[in-house]
Amino acid sequence: MKHLFFVSVAAGIFSGTSISGKAQTAVNTVKFTEPQKKSVQFIEGIEIKRDARPSAENDVWTNKPVTKPVATPITKVSYTKKTTSNSTGAFIESCTALQFKYAQLLDIDVELLTNTKLFEVIEDWWGTRYRYGGTTKKGIDCSAFTGTLLNEVFGLALPRTARDQYASCDKIEREDLQEGDLVFFNTRGGVSHVGVYLANGYFVHSSVHGGVTISSLDEDYYNRKYIGGGRFVAQAQQQPQPQEL
After folding, report:
1. Cβ-based neighbours of 42, under 8 Å, separated by 6 or more
2. Does 74 fall in a domain?
3. I want to staple 185 with a disulfide (CB 3.0 to 4.6 A). Which of 143, 162, 193, 213 is the partner?
4. Number of structural domains, the chain?
């Protein structure tokens, strides 16, 4: 009887261990086979924007529609080289060194400098020293120079002095100045200096210190001394009327 009792107890112990082991194995199997939820990782330096339209896929956990992140596309920027027209290019190719020189001095595009006669005369007088009352290459004053320049280029006959030139011309505003207009200054009382306007705020004149040269109206000295601008218009010659027979 005692042996039977021990056999029954032993059987119960071994049978319980087997059941417990199987149960533990089953639990471990479930844990390892269960889908693991992965954490989201982000890469620094990449901006992600969401698409406005939701995708057809559902979230595996909530079974709800999810929106897929869409990377912002990179747009390639291209630059087009600016080219000039054939006519402009042909004009530039035909420009002389003199035109390029004065285009640089006036800080304008060379194709805007078309009155070559004007700059040929300026070049011919360039650097001639100032001489009060002078009218030649040995020395010339401001009003004699403006009178000579406008006569050779535009065929205009001007009065001899700066004061008389100012009194005889049509007055114009500074913003309306055009090539060939006169610009007047008060350097020693009244109208005492005159030059010829060119372009872009620059004018040519016979300067006391530099002779025939180009200066800017924006320079502090000339800006303070500036009086105004004037324009001479060539008068058309009147043709004689035929007499009735």
Report:
1. none
2. no
3. 193
4. 2
